[in-house]
Design goal:
The chain is of the alpha+beta class. The protein folds into two domains: about 170 residues, no CATH class; about 140 residues, 2-Layer Sandwich (Alpha-Beta Plaits), CATH 3.30.70.1900. The chain contains six helices and 14 strands. Strands 1, 3, 5, 6, 7 and 8 form a six-stranded antiparallel sheet that branches. Strands 12-13-9-14 form a four-stranded antiparallel sheet, with helices on both faces. A hairpin with a 4-residue loop joins β6 and β7. The protein is globular and about 55 Å long. It starts with a strand and ends with a strand. The relative contact order is 0.20.
Length: about 325
Amino acid sequence: MKITMKIPYIKLNFKIIATETISLPYFKGSTFRGVFGNTFKKVVCALKTRTCDNCILKQSCIYAYVFETPEPLDKPFFKKGNNKNIPHPFIIEPPLNSKKFFSANENITFSLILIGKARSYLPYFIYTFIECGKIGIGKGRGHFKVKEVYSHRGEKVYDDEKSNIIPPDYEEINIDEKISDAEDREDTSLTLNFETPLRLKNNKDLVTKLDFSILVKSLLMRIDLLHFFHCDGTKSEWDYKKIIELSKNVTVSKDNLRWWDWERYSTRQQTRMRLGGLIGSVTFTGKISPFTQILKAGEILHVGKNTSFGLGKYQIR
């Protein structure tokens, strides 16, 4: 019997308009994520002077859920002593153009993906971006207005004239949890085009040469964690060892990935951080069909580290 993992999500397209000159870096994801995170805490946090770790409201706070997701007290995912790396239930997909300066009345568009339970906090996300516009973004804190928000399917969710929010219908990722090679009859090829830097670690080292098995391992864990913490609270039935062994039969037939370094300033850590990753395309060849659903899920959910900035975004070709 097939067991299907379901991950509901909504993807929103924001149209904002600059009300004065805005200066943004080449890669804009960390800038959007930075101002959003600071503003979100101001909007929803009741005890702003405390850290989430020792806050009495942590188990029911929206900010803590989104940015410092706690493990359920009665049903932990991680074994005691393991490092916790719970993914955020949102992804900001920034504009991918290289334009750095936006004049007053110019439009800027970006996307936001809300995963699982985070969908119920949609009004908080939209309101926070409205407040971000008043605070300003980028060098010099250029101001903007949120003009419109549409769902990925074209449903109007918000506009600044009516100022009301209409939650859109959600979409759903479905993945069979019983993965086998029974349906594989012949080798096929598949190309992934990484539009934003891919930051992956394998055995604590950053990956500079991407193997299919490393990619699959990272996707499995990310999907499993998102499903457990932000969807229905159950672990997958995946046989990790078997699936990863199966993935080693798929090889790289064409590698056009290159390393790209960029920097961001972390307000929380008060320091500049150098963050590099792989961009470009890679073609895999082998018995790929058992991994199709996982790869398609990653197309929406991204893969690797810093996905809330928009990193790890790829398209399947």
